[in-house]
Amino acid sequence: MAKRCAPACSPVILGLLLWLGLSGAGWAAEITVTADRDPVPVNESFNLTFSADESPDDEPDFTPLNQDFRMLGQSQNSRISMVNGKVSRTFEWTVSVVAKQAGKLTVPPIAFGTDRSKALTVTVTDRSAPGQARSPGDDALLIEVDALPKNPYVQAQTVYTVRVLYRTNLGRAQLSPLEIPDALVQQLGDKRNFSTERNGNTYAATEIRYAVFPQKSGALRIPPLTLDAEVQAGGRGGFNPFFGRPIKTVSLQSEAVELQVRPAPAAFSGKHWLPAENVTLEETLSPDTARVEAGQPLTRTLTLKAQGATVGVLPELGLAGIPAGIRRYPDQPAMDEQRQGTGLISTRQEKTALIPDQPGRYTLPAIEVPWWNIAAEKMEVARLPAREIEVGASAAAPVQASVPATEAASTTPASPGAEQAEGGMAASPVWFWLSLILAGGWLITAGLWWRAARRSREETATNPPESRKPSDKQRMRELKEACAANDPERARRALLDWASLRWPDCEMSLEGIAGRSEGELKNAVKTLSRALYGHPRMEWKGAALWAAIVTTDLGKSRAENRGPAAIASLHPPAEAAP
Fold first, then answer.
1. Residue 524 burial (10 A CB sphere; 0-12, 13-18, 19+)
2. Quick one: which of 150, 214, 154, 208 has its CA closest to 182?
3. Which of 533, 538, 537 is nearest to 514 (CA)?
4. pLDDT for residue 173
5. Is the separation of the CB atoms in 328 and 352 below 8 Å?
6. In what helix (H) or strand (E) does residue 417 lie, and over which residues does it extend?
7. Pick from 427, 512, 518, 555: most CB atoms within 10 A?
8. CA atoms of 235 and 169, how far apart (whole Å)
9. Reduced 3-state DSSP string for 162-189
10. In whole angstroms, what is the distance from residue 143 CA to residue 254 CA?
11. Among the listed ranges 177-181, 392-396, 417-421, which one has the minimum average pLDDT value?
12. What separation, in Å, do the N-terminal and C-terminal C-alpha atoms of the chain show?
């Protein structure tokens, strides 16, 4: 019987499978892509808009665009329209991009989960070379770079200068960060604004300086910087306001600069390589007197200052050569870097407490720091001369060597306890009163701490933490306000508070909430996550998230103010025990 039924069933099964396949193909969302301009100059931004008549399978992955385009930002919105009584909804994703090169470039298909957009060809014209305008009106915005010197020594300073020149009103302007492999980079001071002339035209200029320190010898390439700025479209317009004229985003690239980094010269014989424009070495003693007493501490401060160098190349001044009989207690060295407009000034300061134990004359040795003068191209030495310290006997201690033998034999020695008590009271009345004041201060602090702790315990007993938690209405109000303000970070915190009521056992993170959500809420949570942590950062609108919250069962009950009954539905009463 089964064998006779098989041929008859086969066409039915094949037809059913074919129908499922055709209908499944119809379920896929159709996604189109359009460009707001075509052709477009290579240095100007334009928008790519991806549209779908129904919600795609998942959020888009715009990574393939990075091959030929540089993404400046993206946004998402949806529109609802009604035509002849039929309601339709359109989903749109807009990506602002700048082409990396001229020619016919292809916008590749973008994956929306299992759905894919169609490809698009865009014509990009080479109207202007990077950083240099050619067409009339395009020289309203320029970018210049320079580096001095171009043949620095390894670990020596090169000043890299960037100037943005403009003859039009600038909207948002953003300069890419300066990142150089095998080099340390630090910005010098603040931006400087001034006016200058180029080719007979007057420009407003903004100048930024960087200190670049190559870390190895050989060729070093400073890559181009990218400037993205909003300018007026269709003319210069001088320095007048926009007056409603259209705005376009222009992207310029500076020229690359190549440095030839020289190694440390053979003429430098120092132990530590220190290239700089100027180096000074200073010493101070405290107290600064010609004579001190045995047991009296003496603070020695050594300050090494280098212009055009980082603190990393300043050598340790050390404690070598300190004579025996002097105890040494060094502090941690203090490092400092001052970023001035002309370059970096670095300082290393070492403080050491010196305590001589015995009277006599002691010599602190000379200190020498060899360094390479990059301006004079020669080695120099920063020196501190040797210094003598005369240490006398302590007035508080008896000097037995100065007492004649006859007097020592005839003098009746005092008891050790009486001598110690007399010397202690005579030598340290200040310490006695200081100790008394510190003890009183400690007792007052302990009393205030005990009082504050007691008050905190009383407040906790009268107002337990549970009663200070925000109410459910407050959580919903905070989430609504965060979405209305389009504040993604504030919305994240409010959403976590909201989710702690709906799913008490849920992992308190956006990923955990997305895993528990469905439909519009899941997509809205993913969009919030990309706005917070995605690259590049995208503009976030909170309307979709709030709409998804309101349409959920819990959100709807909160929005309609159904009160405690909605809260009770989260925790059904336990069944009565049998």
1. buried
2. 214
3. 533
4. 84
5. yes
6. helix 416-427
7. 555
8. 11
9. EEEEECCCCCCEEECCCCCCCEEEEEEE
10. 6
11. 417-421
12. 55
CA 548 to chain centre: 33
Task: Report pTM.
Answer: 0.54
State the residue for tokens 């059913």: 16
Tell me the per-residue pLDDT of 211-251, one tens digit each, with 9 for 90 and over: 999 999 999 999 999 888 887 765 444 444 444 556 778 88
Distance CA 553, CA 548 (A): 10
Q: What is the mean predicted confidence (pLDDT) over 562-573?
A: 34
Interior/surface letters 343-363, b for 16+ CB within 10 angstroms, e for the rest: bbbbbbbbbbebbbeebeebe
pLDDT in tens, 13-27: 554 444 444 444 445
Contact predicate 61/525, CB 8 Å = no
Order of strands across the sheet that contains 40-41: 40-41, 120-125, 103-107
What residues contact 123, with CB distance under 8 A and at least 6 apart?
38, 39, 40, 103, 104, 105
Residue in the block written with tokens 């209305």: 484
Length of the chain (residues): 578
3-state SS, residue 525: helix
Q: Tokens standing for 107?
A: 């916008």
